[in-house]
Amino acid sequence: MSPVLLPAAVSALHILGVALGLLGIVNRARALAAFDMPAALRADNAWGISFLLLVGTGLARAFAGLEKGSDFYLGSAAFHAKLGLVALLLLVELWPMITLIRWRLKPQLRDAAVARRMATLSRIEVGLYVLIPFVAAAMARGIGS
Ligand code: HEM
């Protein structure tokens, strides 16, 4: 494979991950607020797959020599801010993720009031999520390096 094709393919997968993630978390928030559990679980699947795609392609881009090299990113305040936002997102996501896994296994546990609280957390995650591309664009252009 030519030396530019793999970085280009991984970059494209990373950006597709961004789009899939936004679709997933926005639809999950909406479906949970309406207590539409089949739609909420479908959206949650998209959200989960996008996260694995983003972290997998992101780590490859940062540390597998596909882009500007590990030293560039480790020396970038924007990169650290980006990973900080991802960690904060994971923290907020922890309870909804565990709850939805339990609700898949035991549908009788599903509760409209709990779903509404998870809808609120999902909206907070949308807010955090849309900040990341701004920090990523700054990182890619060496702002904060
Ligand atoms: C562990 C998680 C992640 C890592 C390690 C990571 C790493 C990277 C790297 C190395 C690049 C290439 C930058 C360059 O061209 O020099 C990049 C680009 C990008 N990342 Fe991530 N990423 C992660 C998660 C995310 C998430 C969650 C989002 C969005 C919500 C995101 C959005 C973007 C965008 C939009 C770009 C393109 C920036 C541009 O070229 O202007 N990344 N990421």
Tags for this model:
mainly alpha; binds protoporphyrin IX containing FE; 0% strand; 145 residues
Structure description:
By secondary structure, this protein is an all-alpha fold. It has one domain (5-140). 82% of the residues lie in helices and 0% in strands. The protein contains 5 helices and no strands. It has helices spanning 5-33, 37-63, 70-74, 77-105, 112-140. Helix 1 (5-33) packs antiparallel against helix 2 (37-63), helix 1 packs antiparallel against helix 5 (112-140) and helix 4 (77-105) packs antiparallel against helix 5. The longest helix has 29 residues, at 5-33. Bound molecules: protoporphyrin IX containing FE.
Summarize the structure.
Helices cover 82% and strands 0% of the residues. With 145 residues, it is mainly α.
